[in-house]
Amino acid sequence: MAEARLQKLLAAAGLCSRRGAEEMIRRGLVSVNGEVVADQGRLVDPDTARITVAGRPLAKSEPQRYYMFHKPENYLTSMGDPFGRPTIRPFLERLDVRVYPVGRLDNDVSGVLILTNDGELGKRLMHPSYMVPKTYRARVKGEPSERELDMIRSGKLVVGDKPCAPARARMLDSGPDAGWLELTLTEGRHRQVKKMCAAVGHRVVKLKRIAYCGLRLPGTLKAGDIVELDDAQVRHLKVKVGLLPPGDSESKKTPASKNVRGTKTN
User: Fold this and answer.
1) Residue 266 lies in a domain
2) Measured CA distances, 213 to 13, 69, 70, 91 (Å)
3) DSSP string, 60-90
């Protein structure tokens, strides 16, 4: 195998992002063949070099994989919980590679979660500077007026002493006691959809994320199921966060899309 930059190998092993790898090298935590590395541009042959991080051998890198997960309600977006509450771990353990969720959804929120072991992509998708759009369908108490929707759209709605960025908002359906909204945000503050709706006088009673960075939840993907993203979808995500230029193609193909049925836990 050709030599590669050390920080790239650390990121490819799923240990951290490339920036995180640079910080580990700066702190003197990374050694190659018993020598602490100080050079950020160090080239290493992963087939022959002995790489350790904080004294532990670096695991061989796994192929980068990318999935969409339809997270069900009442599961925490974590791999464990000290209080014994259900987590998404049983669903992810059905895969043949270790991956992690990009961001999180609240326990009572269902919908799209991207799963990957590509640390650099995951970090960029979550970074606010890339303004990754996230689309939600929310059932709210009462019927929001056009003036209230304009407040959400305006960028002047204040939540927690800070204005929210402009969001797209439209009514999908309405009734005397509740209505359905579709909202697209480019921010990712904690419980932001619920807080924005509450700020205009409408409590969210049900919430589902139906799209992430332009990738929409397929109607055929049931809660708890996972689908592997195809080449075009992975390329779309990478272009959005500047890992590939527009119109570029990936040098390494991702596996063909394949459904993976998630476990169902009562």
Assistant:
1) no
2) 25, 14, 15, 22
3) PPPPP-EEEEEEPTT-BSSS--TT---BSHH
β-strand 259-260 against 226-228: which pairing, if any? antiparallel
d(CA 145, CA 133): 24
Q: Which helix (H) or strand (E) holds 260?
A: strand 259-260
Alpha helix (H) residue ranges in 127-185: 146-154
Average pLDDT over the chain reads 89
Regarding whether 96 and 76 lie in a shared domain, the answer is: yes
Domain that holds residue 252: 66-125+219-260
The DSSP bridge pattern shows strands 158-159 and 30-32 to be unpaired
Catalytic residue among 81, 106, 150, 177: 106
Domain boundary among 196, 212, 228: 212
Q: Tens of pLDDT along 148-174?
A: 999 999 999 999 889 999 999 999 998
- Is residue 94 a contact partner of residue 263, using CB atoms and an 8 Å limit? yes
In a domain, 140, yes or no: yes
- Same domain for 231 and 106? yes
Q: In the annotation, is 106 catalytic?
A: yes
Q: How many domains does the chain have?
A: 3
* Spatial distance between the Cα atoms of 215 and 64, rounded to a whole number of angstroms: 19
In a domain, 253, yes or no: yes
